[in-house]
Amino acid sequence: AAIVEHVFHVENVFVKPLCNEQMIPTVNGTLPGPTINVREGDTLVVHVINNSTYNITIHWHGVFQLKSSWMDGANMITQCPIQPSNNFTYRFDITGQEGTLLWHAHVVNLRATLHGALIIRPRSGRPYPFPKPFKEVPLIFQQWWDLDVGLLNLRPAPLSDAYLINGIAGDSYACSKNRMFNLKVVQGKTYLLRIINAALNTHLFFKIANHNVTVVALDAVYTTPYVTDVMVLTPGQTVDALFTADQSTGLYHMSISPYTSAHGIPVPANNPINGLIVYEGATSSSPASPLMPEMNDVATAHRFSSNITGLVGGPHWKPVPRHVDEKMFVTMGLERLSMQEAYFYNISGVYTDDFPNHPPRKFDYANFKVQTDNDFKMMFPERKTSAKILKYNSAVEMVVQNTGIISAESHPMHLHGFNFYVVGYGFGNYDPIRDARKLNLVNPQLRNTIGVPPGGYVVLRFIANNPGVWMFHCHMDAHLPYGIMMAFIVQNGPTPETTLPPPPSNLPQCTRDPKIYDS
Ligand code: C2O
């Protein structure tokens, strides 16, 4: 195992993917930022030098951070931010996982421009559980607002001016007509596409004209090979897929388009955003285009999200926990329903009647509830994050019910520090008797981010075997201020090996002005 070292200069630079030049914070001056390549078992050391005007943390999205939760980079959860003109060095081991992840800033909406690929390959000498590809290609999908990133909060959630593929807006946009991300391929060769949805707020469909791909990993966990012509990624999700240039020599668009199941939220009818696959020796000049799904094609999204299974017996696979120590039921949703309507029609889940401080009493089994924007807590906001304390090594089952009544949409829930098994996934209200019988305890997906289907639920299981404080939140940035966010506090185990070490001596400290740390 090696020590892989990077220096991240966080600095404001001017870029112009569309019509207006914008000043944005970047790492080392590029959008997306640098790709990190490691092997499983390596130690990653990243020196972050903050020359920008922003408070910064960097989160290693999906990395287990075994006994290194101080390095998780969750602003005000595991550290105070690195202030302008300050430095911090992240140092941690990468163990027990392989595939494609991402790093991103974890302070307000700065991850819009501060992000990049984090690629974990097998230890030297260990093969992939699929044929070795000819080449590997990171594809990072991004969202772009054609104004200063500091104003992002003023925009309605899903609206943006463009989507980018590896920093390039492509030919669908006025000021980007002649620029497109190009992938040159050789006929007959197979490429490993390492696909990352780094968009702030939008689920994205992805298709390549006239070609199928074979999914081999999700969120850096190997899957049973799954052949498909379309995929959907929520913000924060990654897909590793094999693409073989098996069609006639020519030009083919690879395209992304937004997926939103939210009704009543205005989303502009974007044309697909294109990159280009160029076969060696291609003579034609008009690319074939894929037919993208409708923006609200829940069925296609659901098929892709639910059909892929874990690679039982593959590298790093561990059996699903059979017993559960902690059961939790979480409801969430951004209700477009007034409290008075909820009261009048006796609809639960919109508010709790526990003001000011009584424990919730809506559910049978002991749990907590993620806030909704109509509940008392949002009307009298408290500066705190709900937390759930877990005993070391406890087996946790969490039912996440997406209770949106009027404008339900898929919420990509992301857990820091762990992968979870998606043992249940469906529409309607989860029934603890009927649906519990249908849980997949054999070959479920194991991953760190899952889109909870609109008007549906997921059932997640994980073993709390990593002491520290770990966020669980919606990866649509616009939803964090609504409170779709909580934290697990995993207690120490009985031995020194299972105890959280003290923080590094140079961990950034907070100053006393609370305005600075709003996140
Ligand atoms: Cu990718 Cu808490 O984030």
Structure description:
With 519 residues, the protein is mainly beta. The chain contains three helices and 29 strands. The chain folds into three domains: 126 residues, Sandwich (Immunoglobulin-like); 183 residues, Sandwich (Immunoglobulin-like); 173 residues, Immunoglobulin-like (Sandwich). Strands 10-9-12-17-14-15 form a six-stranded mixed beta sheet, with no helix packed on it. A five-stranded mixed beta sheet has the order 11-19-18-13-16. Strands 20-22-27-24-25 form a five-stranded mixed beta sheet, with no helix packed on it. About 7% of the residues have low confidence. It binds CU-O-CU linkage (C2O). CU-O-CU linkage binds next to strand 5 and strand 28. One of its GO terms (cellular component) is apoplast. One of its GO terms (molecular function) is hydroquinone:oxygen oxidoreductase activity. It catalyses: 4 hydroquinone + O2 = 4 benzosemiquinone + 2 H2O.
N-end to C-end Cα span:
36 Å
Low-pLDDT regions: 335-339, 354-383
The number of domains is 3
Q: Could you say which structural class the secondary elements and strand pairing correspond to?
A: mainly beta
Strand content: 35-45%
Major sheet: size, sense and barrel closure? Answer: 6 strands, mixed
CATH superfamily of the largest domain: Cupredoxins -  blue copper proteins
Tell me the number of helical segments per DSSP (H or I, 4 or more residues long). 3
Rg calc: 22 Å
